[in-house]
Amino acid sequence: MISQSITTEDNLYEQDFCLWIEATAHKLKNGKFNQIDVPNLVEEIESMGRSEKRELKNRLIVLLMHLLKWEYQPEKRSQSWGSTIAEQRICIEALLEDSPSLQPLIVQVFDNCYEKACQKAADETGIKLNFFPKESPFTLEEALKVSFVDE
Fold first, then answer.
1. ∠ CA 86-90-91, rounded to 5°
2. Where in the chain are the domains?
3. How far apart are CA 3 and CA 143, in angstroms?
4. Minimal CA–CA distance to 63: which of 133, 149, 130?
C-alpha cells in the first residue's frame, strides 16, 4: 500500500521516483491500467533493458582486462586478479541465465569489449597498447570457461 498521499499525480515521476514506482505497481496490481503513467513506464522498462546490456558489456570488459593482465603479466598474478576473473564469470553467467536473449549480444560485442579491455589493461599496467594483440588471444568460450586460467 502506498504510504504517502499523492498530491500531484502528473509530476510524481519527477518529484519522487520511488513513490512513483510504488504507485505504479499498486495500480498494476489493482488493474487500474487507465491510471498508469504509460510514457514514463515505457521509458523505465526500456532503461532496464539498456542497463542489463550495459552491465553485460562492462563485466565482459573487466573479465577480458584481467585475463590480459593474467596472460601478459604472469609475474604479477595475484589472488585478487583470480577472484575478479571468477566474479566476472559468475556474474556474466547469471546475466545470461536470467536473460538468455543477451547471448547473441555478448557474441556481437566481444571484439569491441576486447578493444576496450586492452585500453584499460594498458592504462592499469603501463604496458603499451600496441603490445596486446589486435584480436583477442582467447575466444569468448575460453574467456567464460572456469578452467581457462590456473586460478
1. 120
2. 1-36, 52-148
3. 47
4. 149
Distance CA 60, CA 114 (A): 8
Task: Extract the C-alpha cell encoding 98.
Answer: 536470467
CA angle 65, 94, 84 (to 5 degrees): 30
3-state secondary structure (DSSP) of residue 6: coil
Amino acid at 101: S
pLDDT of the residue at 148: 67
Residue with cell 519522487: 16
Amino acid letter at 97? E
Pick the closest to residue 88 from 68, 107, 65 (CA basis). 65
- Per cent of the chain over pLDDT 70 is 91
- Cα–Cα dist 95/151, whole Å: 22
Task: Give 6-65 pLDDT, tens digit per residue.
Answer: 445 668 888 998 999 999 999 999 999 999 999 999 999 999 889 999 999 999 999 999
